Structures are given as structure tokens and as C-alpha cells.
Amino acid sequence: MIIGVPREVKADEYRVAMIPAGVEELVRAGHSVLIQAGAGLGSGITDDQYAAYGATITPTASEVWGQAELIVKVKEPLPTEWPFLRAGQTVFTYFHFAASEELTRTCMNAGITAIAYETIRDARGGLPLLTPMSEVAGRMSIQEGAKYLERPQEGRGILLAGVPGVAPATVVVLGGGVVGANAAKIAAGIGANVFLLDINLDRLRFLDEIMPPNVTTLYSNRHNILDCLSRADLVIGAVLIPGAKAPHLVRREDLKRLPYRAVVIDVAIDQGGCIETSRPTTHAQPTFLVDDIVHYCVTNMPGAVGRTSTYALTNVTLPYTLQLANRGIDTACRENPGLATGVNVRAGRITNAAVAATFGLECDSN
Predict the structure, then answer these.
(1) Catalytic residue among 198, 233, 266, 270
(2) 96, 198, 233, 248: which one is catalytic?
(3) What is the pTM of this model?
């Protein structure tokens, strides 16, 4: 099989979908790997390093897309890449279809098979390809939140850790999954006062056992959310419903409860965001103000730490890429039901129920 790795075109995206070790594994298995020139530079990987392990370096994206049967990416195809999509081709990447009906319909009309990293399941029901980037985003959310709380960045002028004689910041984390747990862990380690909310009581019990004393777990209901907002310096939106649009846990009218120039980091923005006033931003222009509240809604947060993120991501994607290349999509999905859950679009039909429900479209789960 011919596997293609194009250079990412999303603004400030420095990740790449394959490292030289992945090229070596695929070539050893008898496949051809096309890497667009410069695809790995944002992660510190040169074309020569890829070539040394058997990759063919191609100068343009059109050549990669035009020749490859399986495209492996990091982020969803952007409008400049849509003309490259063709029937019968498989694209393996983060799609986050629920955030864009236009992307969903484009992939349907193109007749590709779209396998979304974020909906693949493991034997325990986890999301193995989402987990490492959620870990990165959760940890980064506190790093970015600390920066944008600084007054020159339009924040409140608050130091997360506080100092002797001055209280630390209060951080509210909405969602106790991988993103939320990592955010809470880092915030607590810095010394902030943390409230961690979730609707899963078993998860809350687990988090209560493993988190330090400055993390308070709360059941996520409207009353508790509003109460926490009134004292929050930093709010982390970490809600995930796999494949579906994120619910708005913080409404526009709720912003008035937050202190002046508090910061919200909406990590759920890839799935539409869990803060009603959120809208996608980039690393070049990461924040905006609504009602004197700083909003940070970068859709590819892990892209800023490209090298760390690339290696974390490819650790988990390579085994699935090998399965698809070695067995073909039909056999690979039949042998690995978890991989099959990653198929969101197939031959013009939506095969993911959550995506179909988001846009009121028919789902073909066969």
C-alpha cells in the first residue's frame, strides 16, 4: 500500500503524523511511504531522516494526496486540501466532524473513508488516540491560563500559586476526564486552589483518592457550576462526548458571575466548545474578550509543542496505521472492532451515530 503523509497546513500546526521509526516499520512490511518535503520540520525531523529509513520525499501536497491510498494526518483536511480528496481513498486523522457540517458533507461528497482518531476505542472502551493529546492539552491549559492571567495579557494580574500572605488563584475544571484530570494535577502542583467537576460519581471518587488536598471534587450540576464560577480566576472547559458536539455548560449570561478579566480556556473547542461564547482561535491570535472575560480557544493546542505531541501521538497511531496498511480497511476493521468505531464516513455515508445526530443526517452503521 502507498501511505502518504502531507505537511500540515493549519495555522501554527507543528506536528507531523509519522516519525522515522514509523516509516521504517511500514517499509519493512512492504509498503511505500510518501512524505511531503518539510512535513516534519516543526517537530525537528528532517527530510533526510525520513529518507534514511526508506521514505520517498515528494515536493508538493498534490503528489502525496494524488498517489497515496492511505493518507495519515494530524488535523482535519482544511478547505485548501478538499480538492485533493477522492473516492476510494482512506484518510486517517483527527476529524472532529461534529464541529463542522461543511467538512462532514465535503467528506461524504468526496466518497472517502474517514477514520477519526478521536472515536477509536480500545478493549476497555477508552479513547487511545485521543488520550495523549488530551494529556498534552490538559497540562498546557494551565500553562496558558497562567500566562493569560497576567495583566499584560489582559488577565486579572493573578499568580496561580499566590505567595505567602496572598491567596493562590482558584481554578475551576469542568470535566474529570483525561484533559480535566491533567489540568487539575498541574494546577494543584503549582499551588492553586482547584475545583474539579464531573457527572460520573465513580470517576469523582477515583479522582478524590488520587488528587492532592488542594483539589476539591464536586458533582457537576447547574448550581455547583454557577457557585464555582463566582470565585474562579481560571476556568478550564474539559468536557467530551465522543464524536458529538460539546454541551454548553457556561452560558453567555453566566459570564457576569466571573471576576473581572478572569480567563476561560475552552479545550472542548474542537467539538464546538463547552462555553457558549467560545469561538475557534489560533496560536497567532489565541484570545479575545467577551464581557471582560478572556477567552482562549485554540483548536490545536498541542501543535504548539510539536515535538512532544508528535512523538506522543505517533506512539499510539502507528499500530493502527500498520493494521490498515497490512490488512486493508475491511479486514482490519473486522478484526479490530475498536478500529471500526473510528470509521465516521464510508463511501458517502455517515457511519457514526453521534455525528449523524448532530446534523440530523441518516446514519448507516452497517
Answers:
(1) 270
(2) 96
(3) 0.89
- Angle 131-148/178-190 helices, nearest 10 degrees? 40
Cα(first)–Cα(last) distance of the chain, in Å? 25
Distance between CA atoms of residues 210 and 108, nearest Å: 44
| pLDDT at residue number 366 | 63
The DSSP result for 158-197, as a single string, is --TT-BTTBPPPEEEEE--SHHHHHHHHHHHHHT-EEEEE
Residues of the chain with CATH 3.40.50.720: 2-120+306-359, 131-299
Alpha-carbon separation of residue 55 from 19, 23, 258, 312 (angstroms): 11, 6, 52, 21
CA distances from 163 to 148, 157, 177, 235, 355 (A): 18, 13, 30, 21, 47
Does the active-site annotation cover 96? yes
Give me 300's grid cell: 490545536
Q: What is the CATH architecture assignment of 131-299?
A: 3-Layer(aba) Sandwich (3.40)
Per-residue confidence (pLDDT) for residue 270, from 0 to 100: 87
Q: Measure CA 268 to chain center.
A: 8
Active site residue 12: no
Mean pLDDT by 10 residues, the chain (366 residues): 97 95 97 98 97 98 97 97 96 93 96 96 92 96 98 97 97 97 98 98 97 98 98 96 88 97 96 95 96 96 94 97 96 96 94 92 83
Beta strand 293-296 with 287-290 is: antiparallel
Q: 2-120+306-359: which CATH number, 3.40.50.620, 3.40.50.720, 3.40.1110.10, 3.40.50.10300? A: 3.40.50.720
Rounded Cα gap, residues 253 and 255, in angstroms: 5
Quick one: cell of 176? 474529570
Region label for 161, one of left (φ > 0), alpha (ψ between -120 and 50) or beta (otherwise): alpha
What region does 157 belong to: left with phi over 0, alpha with psi -120 to 50, or beta? Answer: left
